[in-house]
Amino acid sequence: MENVYLIYVYLFIAFVLSNIPLINSFIKGNARVSKVIHTIGMVVAIANTMIHESCHALMAILTGGQIRGVSLSVDTSGLAETTSKSRIARILVSYAGYTGSSLVAVGLFYLLYLGKYEWIIYFFVLLSAINWLFWVRNLFGFLWLTAFIGMMVFLLYKHYEVLFIHISILLSCMVLVQSIISAFVILKLSVTDRRNAGDATNLAKFTFIPTVFWGVLFFAQSVVAAIYIANEYFA
To answer: Which three-class secondary structure state does DSSP give residue 69?
Structure first.
């Protein structure tokens, strides 16, 4: 893989940006730096939230359901409101979010492996445009998508090849790290607060399989995806 050391650097940066409270403890007294790091972390983390909610939405379409709307929030959480025609469809829609994020992470690292940095930018522009045009309904989500698309399109228009490399690697690393961290959070909630464990709670209701099973499954498959990436593209 090209720029493998750069990828290691951005994996570390993605981990840092995904753990803002921890980082704030090391930079006490410098509110400006803390705010900048928090803003950058929020902007790139929402890209993974968009992928997660888009996977719910796409599965709803594939199973004959409808999308009422997608919300993206400043705290990097999200919500896809969908309707489904059957229990199986509801199960597939609920399962698609974390699974989709892990699969997209694998796909993004495959493109990095091929050196197709510009394709990654096009992927995010396309997915963002679909959300902007058809799905996202809340004001913050709309504004974030507008700014994000504008930044990506400007980058493509100016054809800054060096920035293609850095931004595509950062986004890919953020999706991978966020897919693992968010799955771990759901695993923790499935043990400590199973009624508020998001998709794991929904799946437990639809399948009568305990919430913790889905929490373990989501986290396990995110780790498997990371191991696959490491073995296939870093070995």
So the answer is: strand
pLDDT band of residue 147 (cuts 50, 70, 90) is very high
Q: Decide: helix, strand or coil at residue 15.
A: helix
Contact 93, 56 (CB under 8 A): yes
At residue 68, the 3 state secondary structure works out as strand
How big, in percent rounded to 5, are the helix, strand and coil portions of the chain? 80, 5, 15
Say which residue the tokens 């997608």 belong to. 70
| C-alpha–C-alpha distance, residues 140 and 143, integer Å | 5
DSSP string spanning 85-152? SSHHHHHHHHHHHHHHHHHHHHHHHHHHHHT-HHHHHHHHHHHHHHIIIIIB-SHHHHHHHHHHHHHH
Tell me if 179 sits within 8 A of 102, measured CB to CB: yes
Average pLDDT over residues 148-155: 93
Look up the pTM and report it: 0.93
Q: Which of 50, 23, 19 is nearest to 34 (CA)?
A: 23
What residue numbers bound the domain in which 65 lies?
Answer: 4-234
Q: What is the pLDDT of residue 27?
A: 46
Contacts of 100 (CB under 8 A, 6+ apart): 51, 52, 54, 55, 56, 58, 59
- What is the per-residue pLDDT for 166? 94
What does the DSSP 8-state code read for residue 233?
A: I
Q: How many domains does the chain have?
A: 1
